[in-house]
Specification:
By secondary structure, the protein is α+β, with helices and mostly antiparallel strands. It has helices spanning 2-31, 41-62, 70-91, 96-127, 130-133, 137-158, 169-192, 197-272, 279-299, 304-319, 338-356, 391-409; strands at 323-328, 366-374, 377-385, 415-421, 424-432. 71% of the residues lie in helices and 9% in strands.
Length: 434
C-alpha cells in the first residue's frame, strides 16, 4: 500500500511539472531568438523557476482531483500565461509586447498539440481504429512541436521578433485566454458530464481551428509591426533624402552659375588684355566653353530632380575612375515626387556604382543609365560590368532592391528586377504612369 501511495505521490509531482514543461517549451523556443539579459545562466533559471513556482505548487496540490472547476482552471492558466510572459521579459532583453507574443503563441502551440491529441482520441473512439488509440500523446506532442518550430518559429525569427512593439498583442493575449484556455476547460467539463463523443470531437476540431487561427493572427501582427517600423524608418529616409536633394539642387545651381561666371570673366579679362588674338588663348576659351556646355548637356533631362541625381552620381563616378552615360526622358518621371526620384534613381545607381567600382579593367568601368517611356509605362534601367560576387554580396543587393521597391516602386504598382547578361548586371524598374 505504501508503494502505491508513493507512486501516486510521484505522479502528482511529475504530472504537473511535465504539463508546465509542455507549455514553456514552445514559449522559450520563440524567445530563444531574443538577446538575453546580462545575468548568469543559473540566475536566469532561478528567476524562471521562482516566477512559475506558484502555479506549479497549485497544480501539484490539486493534481488528480476529478472535478472540473471552470473558474479555478481559467484563473490558474491565465496566471500561468502572465507569469510566462513575465519570465520571458525577465530573462530576455526585450519589450513587454514581445514577451506577450512569446507567451500567448507558445501557449497556443501547446493548446494546438492538446487539440490534436483530443481529435485523435475522439476519432479512435468513434471509428474503433486501434492504431489511432495506440499513438502515444508524447509522440503527438513531439511531432506538433517540430512542425511548430519549422512552420512558425523559423518564420517568426526571419521577421525579427524584437520588432513586436504595439498593443495588438493584448487582444491576442485575451483571445488565448478565452479561446484556447476557456474552450479547453469547457470541453473537459462536457466530457466529464458524458456528452456524446461525436459532439466532443466536433468541438475539439473547433478548438484546434481556434488555435491555428490565433497563431496566424499573431504572426500577421508581428509582420504588421515589422512593416510599420520599417515604414517609419523609410519615412525618415525619404525626409532626409528630400532635404539632401534640395541642398544638392542649390549647390549644383551655384556651381553652374559659378562656372558660367568664370567663363565670362575669363573671356572679358582676355579681351581687355588683348589676348583674344592669341590662338592658344582662343583654344583654351573654346575648350572651357565646350566643357561647360557638355556639363550642361548631361544634366538637362527635363526633370530637375533627375538632373540633380545624375549630376551627383556623375561626379561620384568621375572621382572613382568611372563614367556615367545617361539617356533619360526626365518628363516621363513627372508623376514621381522629387524625393522619390532621389531615393529610387540614387539607390539604383548606387548599387551599380558599387558593383562597377570593383571592376579592374578601365574599359569596363562605364555605367549605362536609361529612362524611357513606353506607352503607359516608364522604365528605368542601369547596367554595368560586374566583378565576381559572393553569395552574401548578392543577398545584400537583393535586400537593397527590396527596400527600394517598398519605399517607392510598390506605392506606384511597379516592379524591380535584376538580371545578369554575360559579365554585366542589369537593374530594371518598371512603373505605370499615374
Amino acid at each position: 500500500m505504501s508503494g502505491m501511495t508513493g507512486a501516486a505521490g510521484a505522479a502528482g509531482v511529475i504530472g504537473p511539472l511535465w504539463l508546465l514543461l509542455q507549455i514553456e517549451i514552445p514559449v522559450f523556443l520563440l524567445a530563444d531568438a531574443l538577446p538575453t539579459r546580462k545575468v548568469p545562466l543559473p540566475l536566469r533559471v532561478l528567476v524562471v523557476a521562482a516566477l512559475l513556482s506558484p502555479v506549479a505548487l497549485h497544480l501539484i496540490a490539486s493534481w488528480g482531483d476529478g472535478t472540473v472547476d471552470v473558474a479555478g482552471y481559467l484563473l490558474t492558466f491565465a496566471s500561468l500565461l502572465l507569469l510566462s510572459a513575465a519570465s520571458v521579459w525577465a530573462v530576455f532583453s526585450t519589450s513587454v509586447w514581445t514577451a506577450f507574443f512569446c507567451s500567448s503563441a507558445g501557449y497556443t502551440a501547446q493548446g494546438f498539440a492538446t487539440g490534436v491529441q483530443g481529435v485523435l482520441r475522439g476519432t479512435a473512439r468513434l471509428t474503433q481504429i486501434e492504431s489511432l488509440a495506440a499513438i502515444p500523446d508524447d509522440l503527438v506532442l513531439l511531432v506538433t512541436y517540430i512542425g511548430f518550430y519549422l512552420l512558425f518559429v523559423r518564420k517568426v525569427r526571419r521577421s525579427r521578433l524584437e520588432l513586436v512593439a504595439d498593443g495588438r498583442m493584448l487582444p491576442a493575449f485575451g483571445m488565448c485566454i478565452l479561446a484556447v484556455i476557456g474552450l479547453d476547460v469547457l470541453l473537459k467539463q462536457l466530457e466529464s458530464q458524458g456528452l456524446a463523443p461525436s459532439t466532443i470531437l466536433a468541438l475539439r476540431c473547433v478548438h484546434l481551428a481556434f488555435c491555428a487561427f490565433l497563431l496566424g493572427f499573431e504572426y500577421r501582427s508581428l509582420v504588421g509591426s515589422r512593416l510599420e517600423t520599417e515604414a517609419t524608418v523609410d519615412r525618415h529616409i525619404l525626409e532626409e533624402r528630400s532635404r539632401q536633394y534640395e541642398e544638392s539642387r542649390l549647390s549644383i545651381e551655384a556651381v553652374n552659375r559659378r562656372m558660367h561666371d568664370i567663363v565670362r570673366s575669363t573671356t572679358e579679362d582676355a579681351r581687355q588684355m588683348g589676348a583674344l588674338d592669341n590662338p592658344q588663348v582662343n583654344d583654351l576659351l573654346v575648350q572651357m566653353v565646350s566643357e561647360v556646355n557638355h556639363y550642361d548637356a548631361i544634366i538637362r533631362t527635363g526633370n530637375e530632380a533627375l538632373d540633380t541625381v545624375l549630376t551627383e552620381k556623375s561626379l561620384v563616378c568621375e572621382s572613382n575612375g568611372m563614367s556615367l552615360s545617361p539617356i533619360a526622358d526626365g518628363e516621363a518621371l513627372a508623376f514621381l515626387r522629387p524625393a522619390e526620384i532621389y531615393v529610387l534613381v540614387g539607390g539604383v545607381l548606387d548599387l551599380v556604382i558599387d558593383q562597377v567600382r570593383h571592376v579592374g579593367d578601365p574599359s569596363q568601368r562605364d555605367i549605362s543609365f536609361i529612362v524611357r517611356r513606353r506607352g503607359d509605362m516608364v522604365t528605368i534601367s542601369a547596367q554595368g560590368y560586374e566583378a565576381e560576387q559572393s553569395e552574401d554580396e548578392r543577398r545584400v543587393t537583393r535586400r537593397e532592391l527590396d527596400r527600394l521597391a517598398r519605399r517607392v516602386v510598390d506605392a506606384h504598382r511597379g516592379s524591380v528586377s535584376s538580371s545578369t547578361e554575360g559579365d554585366t548586371r542589369l537593374i530594371v524598374v518598371s512603373m505605370p504612369i499615374d
